[in-house]
Amino acid sequence: MDPHLPFFIFAGFVAQLIDGTLGMAYGVSCTTLLLFLGISPAVASASVHTAEVFTTATSAFFHYKSGNVDTRFLKRLVIPGVLGGILGAYLLSSFPGEAIKPWIALYLLIMGVVILIKAVRKAQQAPRQTHLEALGFVGGFVDAVGGGGWGPVVTSTLVARGNSPRFVIGSVNVAEFFVAAATSATFFLTLGSVYFTAIVGLVLGGIVAAPIAAAACKRVQPKPLMVAVAVLIICLSLRTIAQASGPFGAIKTAILTATSRISWQ
Fold this sequence. Notes:
The protein is an all-alpha fold and about 260 residues long. It has eleven helices and no strands. The radius of gyration is 18 Å and the shape is globular.
């Protein structure tokens, strides 16, 4: 048995607990973890999305059972999200892993900052449901490319527009099942490589956490959890960026040099 399996089970439980309660951070958290362990971006994203097919199916069932789903959101997000996920998965499979890895880490770093900002910013009061199709497409695309981002993009935007967090989270979780299924199928056809141990562990942990998270969605205060997951993602992403080499490393060195000079002046 792979010694990492218990660790992935625990990670899957925590990630799904957060995602099912807040509507975000499962993919970003798990992908950041796999990148931290040295897995290539394409394999990391493929593995996480394969696991998400099972965890989001379970989460969708319990959110629907708990009455957390608004079909108006669901119908307008699913098809654009699936199309964006397929395109993102196809493009990511075409790039060399080590070259794109620090850029994905940079994207995840930005997502961590986005989550942190959403944790401290108050949502607008007047609910708005405009441009849902475009939002779903962008969310699906960045989710596939970055191995996560569906929740931070879609959930945070809809909540910031003044919509009910409970129904947004439940609906976005159900839509995520279809996006994850389409994305993982595309990765399977174009890449054909996954980290099996990670998938098994993330699925086992996620399935256990799904009903707990769906019930907690009605009660838990989300801000402390959002801050915690944002800090974790930011720290792990910064470590991946700090270890980068090649063109990205040269850019990083130039930025650090410029920053140093500015500080001395």
